[in-house]
Amino acid sequence: MSSSPPSPPAVATPEEGHNEGSKLRTFLGILRKFIGVTDLASVRFSLPSQLLEPTPNLEYWTYLDAPNAFVAIGTSDEPLDRMLEVIRFWLTKDLKYAKGKPCKPYNSCLGEFFRCNWETEDNAPRINTTDLQTPGSSASSIKGAAANLKAAAKSENSSSSVSLTVPQHGTPSNEAGKPLRISYLTEQTSHHPPVSAFYVTCPEKGITARGFDQITAKFTGTSVKVLPGEHNMGIFITLEKRNNETYQLTHPAAHLGGLFRGTLSVSVSEMAYITCPDTKIKAILHYVEEGWLGRTTNKIDGVIFKYDPENDNKTRVQDVPDEDVLARLSGPWKERVVFSLGPRPMKSVPPEEQHVIIDILPLNVAPKVLPPKESMLPHESLRLWGGVTDAILSKQFSKATELKVALEEAQREKARKREQNNETWKPVFFEHSVGNGGKPDLTEKGKQVLERAQKGDWNLEGIL
After folding, report:
1. Which of 205, 229, 351, 355 could form a disulfide with 214 if both were Cys (CB 3.0 to 4.6 A apart)?
2. Where is this chain compositionally biased, Polar residues type (predicted)?
3. Beta strand 195-202 with 207-213: parallel, antiparallel or unpaired?
4. 67: exposed, middle or buried (C-beta count within 10 Å: 0-12, 13-18, 19+)?
5. Dist. CA 18–CA 252, nearest whole Å
6. 123: closest CA among 178, 63, 201, 71?
7. How far is it, in rounded angstroms, from Cα 369 to Cα 64?
């Protein structure tokens, strides 16, 4: 299959580009050409600019929509509580889908990179299941649990006795202390297939996350199904202050629907797995896309359980025997998810023993701290695509498409020259283009970039 993109359709006028119905009709017309294509992502077809979100792909995929959930990972001394902290973060990583509309960012260019910081409060409620245990749970007996539960404030909007959801993101006032800083670096490491590597660090909390991003996509005729590609093994979170305890979080399937209704929507299906070989605890999150009569539910049914890393053969919630179950989860991932301790099915757990782990409804995507324009290099995402973005925002779609095509052709020309000279392209900030078990390592230059970012220094002089 040829990897060259098809010719884009005629560019719409600014008025047409502004009309959502016109956008969808154009998008659907392009997709119809690809019915039966195994992987739309590998084709990397070029969309006209009026159909694009004015955002670089590398800026869009960051997973840190709620950074205060990320910095809370690893707080508890109990392994089960740390798994719940990881799951709470996982359920916040795609706030952009729960709170906003689906969109198509720019395709990334080989060697393009993006960096940013977040500054956040360490204000997520502490998870302490010892204080939440009840006689019906499978965990060890507790002292004073009844008193703790009676003392817990009940929310007017929830029957749960305890809410462990993260609050809306914000940076602390001067009285509250210095904010925690999270630094992020990502680079497009491969063009065929399209793969990017990312690395996140919060040294003060001893937390890092890394992985390769790659998707495969297929148009089914009614929706676009998106799955992780072969090099995307998920997000790997390491807790340095817990003897480098590591969690692997794998991605489920996503569906872009509403193409014929005129309102795009994202739903999620199949399974996500979170495993920690160090604690021998695993979570299965089953995303239930449809309920009775085909109604979309956006629901999660989950189980946290003890497992054997050498014999990891439990892939469905129903595969897990009751004696291994530590906790169960349930609820719509776009709204509120609760958990209960022990093996009992959630429908049999009384409301006072169901605890809110996340409430998405009041949350919004946290803003990034970006380098100043004068510190950005030519192949840095926001500068590389800056002209295209400015043109789209001013509704000059013909100009935006011209600039976008010029960038894409420049990338093809660089590829032709490398092929003529028998040159192999290597990433600048990461040791691996793909592979390494899905866990990219930083080069010395990558480490230096993040070290400077942690100091609020965006100057790359002496590094590149």
Report:
1. 229
2. 165-174
3. antiparallel
4. buried
5. 32
6. 71
7. 12
Q: Which helix (H) or strand (E) element contains residue 206?
A: none
- Return d(Cα 101, Cα 320) in angstroms, integer: 36
441-454 as b/e: b if 16+ CB within 10 A:
ebbeebbbbbebbb
> d(Cα 330, Cα 339) in Å, to the nearest integer?
6
13-54 per-position pLDDT tens digit: 333 344 556 666 666 666 666 666 666 666 655 667 777 789
Which ranges of 316-429 would DSSP assign to H, the alpha helix? Answer: 381-384, 386-393, 397-420
49: nearest Cα among 434, 398, 355: 398
Instruction: Cite the beta strand spans of 159-318 per DSSP E.
Output: 180-190, 195-202, 207-213, 215-219, 224-228, 235-239, 245-249, 253-257, 265-276, 281-290, 296-306
Q: Which amino acid, residue 162?
A: V
Beta bridge partners of 113: 187, 380
Closest CA to 365 of 188, 234, 170: 170
| Residue type at 410 in one-letter notation | A
Contact (Cβ atoms closer than 8 angstroms) between residue 201 and residue 454: yes
DSSP code, position 335: S
Domain boundaries defined on the chain: 58-359
Please state the φ and ψ torsions of residue 101, each to the nearest 5 degrees: -95, 155
In three-state secondary structure terms, 151 is helix
Q: Which pair of tokens denotes residue 387?
A: 């002209």
Instruction: Judge contact between 276 and 246, C-beta under 8 A.
Output: yes
CATH number of 58-359: 2.40.160.120
